[in-house]
Amino acid sequence: MLAEIVRQCQRDNPFAQKRLYEHFANRMYRLCRRYVPDAFETEEVLMNGFLKIFRALGTFEYRSDDELEVWMKRIMVNEALMYLRRKVGQKAWSLDHPDLPEAEVPHAAQETDADLQAEAIHDLILRLPHGYRTVFCLYAIEGYSHREIAALLGVSENTSKSQLSKARAMLQKLLIKNGYEQERR
Amino acid sequence: MSKKEDKHELDELFRGNARYLADQPPRGFDQEAVWQQLQTQLPLRPRRRKWPIAWVAAAAVVALTVLVGGVWVLWPEPGTLPVAQPQVPKYPASPAPSQVPVAPGTLAAATTKQHSQVPARQVPSAPEPKAEAIVPPPSTPAEVPAGVAPPEVAEVLAEAGSAEGTLVVKKPEKPRFRVVHVNELRAPEVPQTPSRLHVAVRIGLPGPAEVPVATEARPWLRVPLP
């Protein structure tokens, strides 16, 4: 199905473009949201990312759905990082302990539903500073290596490893603070 | 649980959580509104032509072929074409009269001399009729009155009579026309109506210079004096 949608998108078919957008909108929004703390700006990053995807689809060679998703995620990640670079600046990645304010996180501690719990855990990432959050998301969730993260952010691999370590420690504390540690055990 | 396993477990927790939430609608995300905004920025799809270029080109080729074929079929063959007759201009550009050297003293010379007086543009391009020697009947010179024939013709006839032979050039006479103005042919004589007839009557004696000459057609008007 995605193969035909991609083929039609390569012919600038607006219906196929909407189908592709609807198929990946939620996934890509959550991906962007992990890097961009503000909801309104997340939508802007999402729009710019989809624009780049539609423009670059003409040169994309479809092989599988997974490959398409990975390709789209890379474009979205690059767009989010570009946004952060414009908004925060290059210092966001290299600071050991950034003074940037934490992202606004909706309170989800009292939610009992599994979805709401998953949302609450997801929102814990938004409490991390920019540098920690970016490296943790790239490494733990997107699956980038430290070398790739260093190349993407323009920092050394050691800086990436340091940021990741500190991000994990902070998340551990946040999980314990919100009562998740005992459940994991 | 070692510290390394904890870290890995932490990464797995968030990775699995993100995978679980991947297709869940995010809170506060209006998917349709974002699409409406995105749609306005998408590059417009190039409109397809109703008549693709290939079809237009094919139609043009067919039309041209039909046109050329029709002209080829309907065009008459070269043998059936009417041969264009070389038109001899009535009035050639050359104003010089044609002069034919002829031996003097012959009737042909006289005739040629007479023809040479005609402007060259009136001479037809067709070959001249050859002079033909005929014996005129004895009554022929007497029948032609000298006053009727033009002086040139009379001269020719006189020369013919004085010649040693009785050779007469038989030449088709040209019709003679009187030159009249077109108004003479058009304007009919309209009789004047009596109402428009003006009669002037003079009372008294005319002056000596004004005395009209008496004519037979118009008698004197006699007015009795008191």
UniProtKB/TrEMBL annotation, chain A:
Keyword Cell membrane included in the entry's annotation: no
Keywords from the named record: Sigma factor, Transcription, Transcription regulation
Entry's Gene Ontology BP terms: DNA-templated transcription initiation
Domain RNA polymerase sigma factor 70 region 4 type per the UniProt entry, residue ranges: 119-171
InterPro entries (UniProt xref): RNA_pol_sigma-70-like (IPR039425), RNA_pol_sigma-70_dom (IPR014284), RNA_pol_sigma70_r2 (IPR007627), RNA_pol_sigma70_r4_t2 (IPR013249), RNA_pol_sigma_r2 (IPR013325), RNA_pol_sigma_r3/r4-like (IPR013324), WH-like_DNA-bd_sf (IPR036388)
Segments forming domain RNA polymerase sigma-70 region: 20-87
Gene Ontology terms for molecular function: DNA binding; sigma factor activity
Family of this protein: Belongs to the sigma-70 factor family. ECF subfamily.
Protein name: RNA polymerase sigma-70 factor (ECF subfamily)
UniProtKB/TrEMBL annotation, chain B:
Residue spans crossing the bilayer: 53-75
Keywords from the UniProt entry: Membrane, Transmembrane, Transmembrane helix
Protein name per its UniProtKB record: Uncharacterized protein
Source organism superkingdom: Bacteria
Species of provenance: Rhabdobacter roseus
